[in-house]
TrEMBL record:
<keyword id="KW-0479">Metal-binding</keyword>
<feature type="site" description="Interaction with target DNA">
    <location>
        <position position="88"/>
    </location>
</feature>
<dbReference type="GO" id="GO:0000287">
    <property type="term" value="F:magnesium ion binding"/>
</dbReference>
<dbReference type="GO" id="GO:0016891">
    <property type="term" value="F:RNA endonuclease activity producing 5'-phosphomonoesters, hydrolytic mechanism"/>
</dbReference>
<feature type="binding site">
    <location>
        <position position="118"/>
    </location>
    <ligand>
        <name>Mg(2+)</name>
    </ligand>
</feature>
<feature type="binding site">
    <location>
        <position position="50"/>
    </location>
    <ligand>
        <name>Mg(2+)</name>
    </ligand>
</feature>
<keyword id="KW-0460">Magnesium</keyword>
<dbReference type="GO" id="GO:0005737">
    <property type="term" value="C:cytoplasm"/>
</dbReference>
<comment type="function">
    <text>DNA repair enzyme involved in the repair of deaminated bases. Selectively cleaves double-stranded DNA at the second phosphodiester bond 3' to a deoxyinosine leaving behind the intact lesion on the nicked DNA.</text>
</comment>
<keyword id="KW-0227">DNA damage</keyword>
<keyword id="KW-0540">Nuclease</keyword>
<dbReference type="GO" id="GO:0003727">
    <property type="term" value="F:single-stranded RNA binding"/>
</dbReference>
<dbReference type="Pfam" id="PF04493">
    <property type="entry name" value="Endonuclease_5"/>
</dbReference>
<keyword id="KW-0378">Hydrolase</keyword>
<comment type="similarity">
    <text>Belongs to the endonuclease V family.</text>
</comment>
<keyword id="KW-0255">Endonuclease</keyword>
<dbReference type="GO" id="GO:0043737">
    <property type="term" value="F:deoxyribonuclease V activity"/>
</dbReference>
DNA sequence: GCGACAG
DNA sequence: ATCTTGTCGC
C-alpha cells in the first residue's frame, strides 16, 4: 500500500542541472519574484531542513524535521538520499542542495506553515540564497538561518552579547538580513527572510524556536538527523533513497526505520 | 586588479 | 560540508 504524501506536483519552475552562467542568470530572474511581506496564516507546523555530504560514497543526504509550534515537538522526520549532483560553489549552493531537500519535502504528510533553511535567504549576492530559492519553489514562507556570513556588513560592536540581541545586516545600502545572537556569548546566526515573510517576523520566529542552543530547534533537529547515523528516539524516520537522480523513479526504496546507518 | 566566499 | 583533541566556561 502506498503512503500518502503531499503532492506538490505541478509544472517545475525550472531545471536544476544548469551551467554556472545560466544558473546565475536564473537567480537574477527568480529574485524578482521574491515577496518580503508576511503571507503567513496561523503557524502550527514549522519544518527545519539540513544536508549532510559523504564524498566517499558520493551521497547527499537531506533531512527534514516537522515540528509543532509553539510546542516544538517532533511530528515527522524524513531523510532523502541521492547521488551528489554538483560541487559546492559559493553563491550557487541551492543548485547542489535544493533538489535533495525537495525530495525530502515530498515525503511530508503535513504541509508546514513555515520553513527554516540552513543557509542564506535573500542575504545573497543576487538576493537568492537557498532559503529564498526553496521558498519560491515550494511556495511556502521560508527563513534563511546561516551559521556564517556570505555577503553584507554589520556593526559587530553594537551587537550585544545576550541572547535576543541583533543588528541589521547591510549590503549596497540596504538591509538584507540580521545578525542575531541566538545564545548568550555564542557566535551569532545570520538570519534573512527567504520568501513570503518579512525580516522582523523572521527574527521573531527564530527566537521563538530557541531552545538554549545556537541553532533554532527545527534546524538543529534536521542537522542532527542528517548527520547522526542512528536515531534512538520515539518517532520513526522515513528513509528514502534515490539511486539515480537523473532518472528519479528508476530505483527508489522507502522504508520506516528507527535505526539506520548507510554510510 | 585583489579579496571574500552559505554548505 | 568534513576532518578532528583537548579544553575553557556557565
Amino acid at each position: 500500500m502506498k503512503k500518502r504524501m503531499l503532492k506538490m506536483a505541478r509544472t517545475p519552475l525550472h531545471e536544476w542541472n544548469l551551467k554556472t552562467e545560466a544558473a546565475i542568470a536564473l537567480q537574477h530572474e527568480l529574485a524578482q519574484h521574491i515577496v518580503l511581506e508576511d503571507h503567513l496564516g496561523e503557524v502550527r507546523f514549522i519544518a527545519g531542513v539540513d544536508m549532510a555530504i559523504n564524498e566517499e560514497h558520493n551521497a547527499a543526504r537531506a533531512a527534514v524535521v516537522l515540528m509543532s509550534f509553539p510546542e516544538l515537538e517532533i511530528v515527522e522526520r524524513h531523510v532523502y538520499e541521492e547521488p551528489i549532483r554538483m560541487p559546492y560553489v559559493p553563491g550557487l549552493l541551492s543548485f547542489r542542495e535544493a533538489p535533495s531537500v525537495i525530495g525530502a519535502f515530498e515525503q511530508l504528510r503535513q504541509k508546514p506553515d513555515l520553513i527554516m533553511v540552513d543557509g542564506q535567504g535573500i542575504a545573497h549576492p543576487r538576493r537568492l540564497g537557498i532559503g529564498a530559492h526553496l521558498g519560491l519553489w515550494l511556495e511556502i514562507p521560508t527563513i534563511g538561518c546561516a551559521k556564517s556570513l556570505l555577503t553584507g556588513k554589520y556593526d559587530k560592536e553594537k551587537l550585544g552579547e545576550e541572547a535576543g540581541s541583533w543588528v541589521p545586516l547591510i549590503s549596497r545600502k540596504e538591509t538584507i538580513g540580521a545578525v542575531v545572537r541566538t545564545r548568550t556569548r555564542v557566535n551569532p546566526m545570520f538570519i534573512s527572510p527567504g520568501h513570503l515573510i518579512s525580516l522582523e517576523t523572521s527574527i521573531r520566529y527564530v527566537l521563538a524556536c530557541g531552545k538554549g542552543y545556537r541553532l533554532p530547534e527545527p534546524t538543529r533537529q534536521a542537522d542532527k538527523l542528517s548527520k547522526d547515523n542512528t536515531t534512538p528516539d520515539n518517532t520513526d524516520v522515513n528513509f528514502t533513497i534515490n539511486y539515480s537522480s537523473s532518472q528519479p523513479d528508476t530505483k527508489n526504496m522507502n522504508v520506516q526505520v528507527n535505526q539506520f546507518k548507510l554510510w
